[in-house]
Amino acid sequence: xxxxxxxxxxxxxxxxxxxxxxxxxxxxxxxxxxxxxxxxxxxxxxxxxxxxxxxxxxxxxxxxxxxxxxxxxxxxxxxxxxxxxxxxxxxxxxxxxxxxxxxxxxxxxxxxxxxxxxxxxxxxxxxxxxxxxxxxxxxxxxxxxxxxxxxxxxxxxxxxxxxxxxxxxxxxxxxxxxxxxxxxxxxxxxxxxxxxxxxxxxxxxxxxxxxxxxxxxxxxxxxxxxxxxxxxxxxxxxxxxxxxxxxxxxxxxxxxxxxxxxxxxxxxxxxxxxxxxxxxxxxxxxxxxxxxxxxxxxxxxxxxxxxxxxxxxxxxxxxxxxxxxxxxxxxxxxxxxxxxxxxxxxxxxxxxxx
Length: 354
Prior knowledge:
It is a single chain. This protein is of the alpha/beta class. It has 2 domains: 31-198, 3-Layer(aba) Sandwich (Rossmann fold), CATH 3.40.50.1980; 216-348, 3-Layer(aba) Sandwich (Rossmann fold). Helices cover 35% and strands 14% of the residues. The strands form 4 sheets. Strands 6-5-4-7-8 form a 5-stranded parallel beta sheet. Strands 11-9-13-14 form a 4-stranded parallel beta sheet. The protein has a 3-stranded antiparallel beta sheet with strand order 1-2-3, covered by helices on one side. Helix 8 crosses helix 13. The chain is globular and about 60 Å long.
């Protein structure tokens, strides 16, 4: 799945394509580095997927986010007041409670990908990109080069749990990369305490689920298919073992039917899904911005599975084993990844998870 807020390319070659992602240095999500002129809690050095370093001698003051996922994390960290603009803004009602009201006050630089010239001329000192490389299609030009970012005085970072997913060396089975992203953003923006609080809350939920279902043998785990309805129904898109969603599914005590697929996402055929005959299907619908609109989209996804000749005979469809959980909270780094682990586990293991 590509985020509702942006169809960024995650399957890119490692190397010069990565500027500087929010990642760990020397085992710490954002390790202090020596230097002069630093403010309290700084300097902070973060690395990209290749280990290249970027150092912040002070907290950024003017941040632009590529889409709603990184914007939401900054709002949760209490750094939302520093955000001067975003691309792919969250629809009204997309984010919970007060987060939504604050998100709606952020200037929208583009309803889709921020055009190159607008981004470079935004006045930002930090651009947080959810993905590894943005395809500035539709006549908007190419993504800025690292040299152009530097000339504009903009540091360019990523959410590594998403940006580095396609090139990961092994399957992702926990949320540590997401937690590192949150801690790194906390260190960079001077909100370490809040970042730790958010991560501790995530760990508490996931640990409770693991105590309940972590010992369930592989062959006793319900098989699970993430149906990315918005990615298209003609040819389904499978969640592979480098994607955050694979970790979410695994932690919840389920078995991802496409766990043998190396990478983040891959297009497969319906015959492949039929061969797996999943016990459960998640209706992966992207947030429409209201409860009514979301319900309508979930209804449409379920109706399609029940009426399509290729899928109506699937075990999950016959038994009505559908989970209505939004795509973003499952496939993109965020605090709600832990909530999704909990929700799936409660549905699949009601006798174990309360």
